[in-house]
Model the fold of this input.
Amino acid sequence: MKTVLRAIAVALLLAGASLVPWSHATAKEAAEVGDDPANERHMMSLAAELRCLQCQNQTLADSNAPLAVDLRQEIRELLAKGQTDEQVKAYLVARYGDFVLYRPPLQTNTMLLWFGPGLVLAGGLVALYLALKRRLARLEAMEREAQAGSTGALSAADSQRAKSLLEEENGEGSLS
Amino acid sequence: MAASKFRLTFLLPLLVFVAISGFLLKGLWLDPREIPSPLINKPAPDFHLESLETPGKIVDRKDMLGKVWMLNAWASWCVACREEHPVLVEFSRSAAIPIVGLNYKDTRMEGMRWLAQFGNPYVTSVFDEAGRVGIDYGVYAVPETFLIDKQGVVRFKQIGPVTPELLEKTILPLIRRLDA
Done:
């Protein structure tokens, strides 16, 4: 009976543990939290699109660097004042540059970044098209040749050559 | 004709490889921590802060108008600042331009103790306890140094310690140009 109870307890624990990573709210550390849960969610979703400058591969939402904590507070206050996402982003870009944005804006210096992969894909498609076209032309030419061979008569020189080759082969055969 | 076509198909991947290698090689010499400041050639953000040394005394950004000056963000908890500090003390002796310290997210006691211990190159330090002015200046990794002209426009920003070489090669020529 005891072992059964223990097994059930372990199973429940494991089930609970497996649930934790799926629930975002419990996975987050209990950090500074604003008074208004809606504003807090809004701030976090916006912060998830912004880069922490102290630890550059984390978002402002993920990072616990002091600057990230300060900037979350800043965003929280700006949103509470009724600023839009775009205004908050502009506020941060004015201070830290485009680098804070995880989604790079479409500008002259980001053209290659935005369209480079498309250009490479288009180049590949063109190369593939040309290669296939060339191959098809070669295959058709071969087919035409084969058809000409099966229907048309051999030229005099060719039939002479074929004859001599056949004779040569027959001669060899008789020797063995 | 056939031979040149043959060579091209084999050379093309090599050329692509060389081009990619070129980009990657350049990337080796870029420092991802050095983010170009959007403040360059823009008016320096305003501040209105208490002085570190004299509580209650307010220092305003506009007090510095008419001078070429330097704003140096530092903190007693910042290790790289310790490396930079003797360079600034030495530079301040030449009295080329005034240096204002931005004491970033520090405590008064720790900040004062640091200045007493290592020397004070600053005409004054402003006390940015909450780091709000630091945010306005886009400070993300102390030490950071701004060179600001007579009209209050940011002309140069250094992220990381100021070195004697940087002073010699970049900052001093720039000061001469801005002072002219």
Notes: Chain B touches chain A at residues 32-33, 35-39, 105, 130-131, 135-138, 140-141 (CB under 8 Å). Helices of chain B lie at 2-28, 79-94, 108-118, 132-136, 164-179. Chain B has a mean pLDDT of 90.
